Structures are given as structure tokens and as C-alpha cells.
Amino acid sequence: MPVDLSTPVKYVKGVGPKRAEDLRAKGIETAADLLYYAPFRYEDRSNLKPLGRLAPGETATVIATVRRVQAPRFRRRDLGMIEAVFEDGSRIPLTARWFHAQYLANLLQPGVRAALFGKVEFDTYLGGLVMLHPELEILRGEEDEEDEALHTGRIVPVYEAAGKVSARVFRNILYRLTSDLSAMEDPLPASLRQRLRLPGLAESLRALHFPPQNADVNLLNQFRTPEQFRLIFEEFFWLEAGMALKRSEERAAAGISFQLTDRVREQVKKMLPFKPTAAQKRVLGEIARDMASPVPMNRLLQGDVGSGKTIVAAQAAVIAVENGYQTAILAPTEILATQHFLNFRKIFAPLHYQILLLVGSQTKKEKELGKRAVESGFANIVIGTHALLEEDVQFARLGLVIIDEQHRFGVLQRKALQQKGVSPDVLVMTATPIPRTLALTIYGDLDLSVIDELPPGRKPIQTLHRTRDEIEQVYSFLLGEIRAGRQAYIVYPAIEENESSAMKAAEAGYRELTQHVFPDLRIGLLHGRLPAEEKDRVMEAFKRGEIQILVSTTVIEVGVDVPNATVMVIENAERFGLAQLHQLRGRVGRGAAQSYCILVTDKLTDAARERIRTLVESNDGFYISEMDLRLRGPGEFLGTRQSGLPVFRIGNLLRDQEILELARREALEFAERPPSREEYERAMRYVREHWQQRYGLALVG
Ligand code: ADP
Ligand code: MG
């Protein structure tokens, strides 16, 4: 009987209610989930080495029989070590050792046949070959329902176990499940399949689990057989097709067509405090074109820290205001919102715009007045934090939404602000460059502008790594810079995962510095728990140069702009993530003088060492974010916040970037120039039915 893909997994042959529970814990709920549960590795068991031919140092699969299981002779009991001696008829035995593995004691009975995969070593004490903690698969003795040919004598798929559902059980179940997929429909458009020579869906799923005899095991392990390629491509293709659909729907709404008159140009000129760089000009052009068009703008502006995104945003705001519309700017922290507010007030002074700040810490009265100014249309530009999103904040005529540091917000917050206007233009900005693969997957519905050039006269920041015992040297260097008229930041990390622990660290550092290290210098303290006026006062004093050293938590991570500050000391730098370190470093190097970032560390783990090395090596935010992605993986990289990262079953963003690029090109092409009406409609129906459930993303929202 052909498989119905939506069948609950417990009704799939060989599963049953008990196993179904184990499978559910892995997110496998239906027959389809099971079919797409890809092996993480393939093992060539068609051509195995006998034990007698193993050499120390090699990683190998062997199939052998347990001769005896022995208690460790000398090790401490609590290691729970199990040691089994295997033989296969060649005269050389192999000893396998597992620690903390008492559970194996029942499985490894003499006479049991098993496949072992691991690194072979020579144990001088034993005078023989050992495998330490090999992967183990019992071949006989556990259950004998399927013939052994499924598990040996061929290239076998190796699955991550799900509770009691072992790799072997998966193989049994999937063998049955894939044996009749003939009735399965292939949703990929036929013209696409032909042009790219992609194998059919049923054939591909079958080969994913049970590769044909002549398959190349290396290719399989790289996930690059034609069948694997097709499945990965398909997964990305539908994701991007959904993005294309979303784009076209968003674009179908009637947006505002802002007029780019001579007066707008004049006002922009009046406002610009300096000559824009070529990259700023190009991006300004892209934004102006979007704003002039009747299609709503949905644009992501990426630019490394200090690349000058603010002025680009300001110019977009001029276009909106001169056309009689309001602009809303959303920032993640009060400090950043306040900085923007002061900055914009200065920038827009020649134009006499009404600029308004709306943040949570304002008094009720201030907020009331603010809201009234927004509602009446008196305020031209409103800058704020989450407070802006509250329901009772209503705009008279919202035309442009700017979201700073987009990665700090979710899609829903973007939408919430957008809905306060009628199809306003949207510009989202981020200073955390997002590797291209991620940008394509999470922001695939946005157009992309990149500022890839720093303002003129910037010297690259010098980044140095110092250990705790070199701190005196760091302080004397810092003193030298202060004596030369510069300013510095010293940033402390949270010791635990909360702001109050960061506050304590910063306060302790502040006491030490004011009392013992630099009693003669003017030092300020900034952390998230200070009252808003106090924060503003400290920031302003630092900006004016009255404070020489600003001791702080990561509240200064984004947006703070004091060009005279040339030294950034980061205490316990090993505790910070790469992106955060790069952001913090971006607080210096904003003027013409040489700037320095000094990373002070205590104990370093390997991962921390790698992060520090990356930073010392490079100032390039895009390179750093690629490294970050590699070191942490996509999920961690985006954080647990509503990151909007789609869930992939077979595709892997680190491994499959080029397939993703291809799928995106094909999906855009397909959506813009469909080969036929029928194919297009069939595909879009498929997307509407599957997208949300398959990728965990909202198609409309
Ligand atoms: P970010 O992209 O990190 O938001 P900012 O917009 O804060 O960067 O700009 C960083 C600094 O560079 C600011 O002091 C800004 O005034 C200055 N700046 C930006 N563009 C230029 C330019 N074209 N010429 C000179 N200085 C510039
Ligand atoms: Mg900025």
C-alpha cells in the first residue's frame, strides 16, 4: 500500500505507540517526518576489513563477535568502564572500551555480533589493538525481524538514535516505508526538474536511506549524490519560493509614492553634515528609488559598525517628512534611542523638524504629551524603544518605519510598527553583518543594501590580546592615551546571565579604578540599572569629554558614538561572544586618531581562544560573522529570540550554501517568469499549504 505522508507515525509499520513516543521527542510525528529523517553518516559495510588488517591510527568499521566482557582490572569503579574483546576469525582480537557505559553490560553478551566504528589505537599495556568509545551497533541478538542483509554487506545509513529507537530499528522501519513510494507525487515543477536534471522525489528519498549498490560513500557523506542534492535543493527551493510569494504579496499593496522634488534635494543638502561616501551614496540612491516607487519599500540595510548608517536613515526621513509624512525609528535600548534622538535633533536643527523621544522610563505625563504630538501629527520624527509599539501610540500619518539593529527585534515587532501606518515604507538596519546564507533564509523577503566602505580617514582599529597578569601594562598604556587628550571605555561582562551581575562587575571595577588605579582621572559609571536621567547625564558628560574613562556594562554595545574615544578595554573578554566583541570594539575608531581595542582575558577555553584570535586578526564584520556562524552554528548564532530561523530537515546552512544560492535564483526566476500558468499555480498552492508547517515561519503576518 502506498504511504500516506500525513499518517501519524505510530501507525507506520514497525513503530507502534511506544516507539512513537521516542520519535516524537525528536520531532518525528508523521510518516513524512520519518522519511525526511536523514542519516547523519553512511558506512560502507560491503567491503569490511578483517581485524587482522587493521592498523593503528585509522578510523574503521569492523564487524565482529563478542568473545568476552571483562571488568576493568585496575581502573576505579566509578568510571563505569566496560571492556569487551571482539574476534572475527582472524587471529588478532580487538578490545573496545566504553566509559560510563554500564548500560552496555546487558547487550554485550559473548557470541553477540556487532558493528563497531571508531579509531583504532595500539595499547601498549595490553599489547594489542583497542577502540575507545566506538559507535556500536548490535547486529544480532536484539531483534531478528529483518534479515541481516539490511545492516551488513552494503552501504548502510547511520541514524542518530531516538530514545530506544536505535539506528538499526530506524533502518528496519525506513526500509519498509521506502519500499513502496511509487504513488508519491513529486511537487517540484517538472520543467525545473528536467532542466536541472534532478531525480524524482520517491527515488531520492529511497536513495537517501538505502543508496544503490554502486553509490560513492564519500559523496554520500558529503551529501552530494544527485538524490541528496535534489532533496536539499527542494527544501531550499520551497523556502525561497515562499519568500518570493511573500514579497509579491507585500508588494501588491498600494504603497506611498514619495516625491523627490528639488526642495527635497535642497533640504537633504542642508542637513548633510559631511560628504557621503560612495557606498552611502549608492545606498541612498537605492532607498530613494524605493521610496519614490508606489510599491512599499522593504529593505534591509547592512553596514559594519561605524560605516555610517545613521545619515542614510536621516536622509530617508527627510524624504518622508518633506512629503508630509511622519517617520518612526525603533531602537532596541533606551541608551541607543536617546543617542539617536540627540543626534537627530542636531542633524535636523537646520530643517526645524519636530523630533520626539518615546521610551519606557519617561513619566506618564511625558508619555501622554508625546503620544498627543504623534497623534496630532505635530511630531515629524518619533524615536523610541518598545514603548513605540504600544497600542495607544497612534500616528497621524506614518510614512516611513526605520528599525535599527534589526536582529534585536522579531518579525512581529516590525509588523506591529508597520501597521500603525497604511503600507508605510520600511527600512531595517543592522550593524551585525549577517552571513549571506542566513540573510537569504531569514530576510529573504527583504531587498538588501550594503554599505561596504568606511568614512574617509579612518585608521583600522588595532586589537591586542593581553592576559590578566599584564593588566598594569594595559593601564599605563591607557593613561598615556588619556594624557594625550583621548578618552576610553572599560567594559565588564556579566558573570551570570543577567544585568545585575554585570552591574556588580562594573561597580567593582569602577571602585577599584577610582580608588586605586586612576585616582586622579575623571571616571564615569554606566549600567542598565541606572535611572534614565542618570544614564543621559553620564553619556552627555562623556560626550563633552568631562568624563575621561567610561566604565560600563554592554549597554554601550550599540550606537554610542564618541569619536574622541580611542581605547576600548574589554575585561574578561573570554566571556563575550564574537559579535558582541566586534560591536563593542566598534565604539572606538570613529575619529581620525589611531584607536585600540584591548581584550583582557583570564582563563581561555579553546573556543574562546578562537574568538579572540579571530578578532585580533580581522576588523571585517562580515568575516567575523562568518566565523561566528561556523563556531556556533545557525541556531546559537541568531540566539533564542524570535530569530525566524527556518527549520531544515536535510539542508544544512553551513554545508549547503551553494545549493541555497542556486535554489534562491531558481525560485525568484520561477516566480517572476513562470514556465506556465499551471506550473506556477500548482507550485504556489504547494507553498501555501506547506510553508508554514514545514519551516516554522509565518507566511502572512
Ligand atoms: P553606524 O553605521 O555604526 O550606525 P554611524 O552612522 O554612527 O555608524 O557613523 C559613525 C560615525 O561616522 C559618526 O560619527 C558619523 O558622523 C561618521 N560618518 C558617517 N558617515 C560619514 C562620512 N561620509 N564622512 C565623515 N564621517 C562620517
Ligand atoms: Mg547605528
Percentage of residues in DSSP E strands: 15-25%
Mean pLDDT: 88
Strand order of the largest sheet: 11-12-10-13-14-9-15
| Poorly predicted parts | none
Cα-to-Cα separation, first versus last residue? 39 Å
CATH topology of the domain at 262-451: Rossmann fold
Q: Looking at this structure, what is the CATH superfamily of the domain at 262-451?
A: P-loop containing nucleotide triphosphate hydrolases
Shape descriptor reads globular
Per DSSP, the total helix count is: 22
Mind telling me which CATH architecture of the domain at 262-451 this is?
3-Layer(aba) Sandwich
Share of helix, binned: 25-40%
The set of bound ligands, ions and cofactors reads: adenosine-5'-diphosphate, magnesium ion
Question: Could you tell me the number of beta strands?
Answer: 21
Q: What order do the helices and strands come in, and which of them pair?
A:
Elements: H1 16-25, H2 31-35, E1 41-44, E2 59-70, E3 82-87, E4 94-98, E5 113-123, E6 128-132, E7 135-138, E8 155-158, H3 167-179, H4 190-195, H5 201-209, H6 217-221, H7 226-252, H8 262-271, H9 278-292, E9 298-303, H10 309-322, E10 326-330, H11 334-347, E11 355-358, H12 364-376, E12 381-384, E13 398-403, H13 411-418, E14 425-430, H14 436-442, E15 447-451, E16 462-467, H15 471-483, E17 487-491, H16 499-517, E18 523-526, H17 532-543, E19 549-552, E20 565-570, H18 578-585, E21 596-601, H19 606-617, H20 621-638, H21 657-672, H22 677-695
Parallel strand pairs: 4-6, 9-14, 9-15, 10-12, 10-13, 11-12, 13-14, 16-21, 17-19, 17-20, 18-19, 20-21
Antiparallel strand pairs: 1-8, 2-3, 2-5, 3-4, 5-6, 5-7
Helix pairs in contact: 3-5, 5-7, 7-21, 7-22, 8-10, 9-10, 19-20
Adenosine-5'-diphosphate is lined by residues 274-277, 280, 303, 305-311, 431, 455, 561, 563, 590.
